[in-house]
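Appendix B. Chain record.
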Amino acid sequence: MPRWKYMKSRLLIPIFAVALPLMSQTLQFHYDMRHSLDAARNPKNYPTLYYEYFKGDDSGSFLLKMQSDFTGRRNSIGQFYTQVSQSFRYWEPKICLKVEYSGGLGVTDPGGYGYYLTNTFSLGCAYPFQWKGGFFNVAISYSYTAFTPPSYDPLFSIYWWKGIWNYRIEFCGDVEAWTQNRDGGNGTSPSGTGKAFYLYGQPQLWMNLNERFSVGTKLSFYYHILTEENLILLYPTVAVRYKI
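Structure tokens predicted for this chain:
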């Protein structure tokens, strides 16, 4: 099984919520154009449906995200991913304790065999702050990924959100860097044993048409995730967003 089947997707947290109480739900539809830009590595373009529920205040935040990638035959769901994250703060310093779970399932074409997005559990600290009109959240965590044998690794994350032109434009995103076992436990990793360094990011740009509807784009970049070559792969989407 290809190494990238084990990699967890890294997710955007709406970090502007660290500054004020907020409860939000969003539904997004993305069309990923990676085949048009890099056909040798990607068999098709595909749509993605994404749902997020977020609630946050001064004492912490809760995030639920579910993502379905329609990569299967005739645009059937080929991969499903879920993430649950909770942060806590019951003290004066603005440093939160953060716990997180992520995992999922998928199927490949041709052949149709299934695979896991291996369960990952993380524990760490997050520090939210404001800078030059933007809102940021920096987190450092210790992750357990249920490979055989398990992978124990550090994870560094930074999230940002900034409103532009009286908040008609939103620039937001996240970047994560971490290490992980090269071999997920089935012995098929071409690079063998040991650790590898991974980098993933999702800068996003949205134009708000009204209070609920937005149009925009997301640029996903990958290092050592979709290929073990020392390459940064860049794949954009076109998207619409609905705030529930």
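Further analysis of this model is presented in Appendix C.
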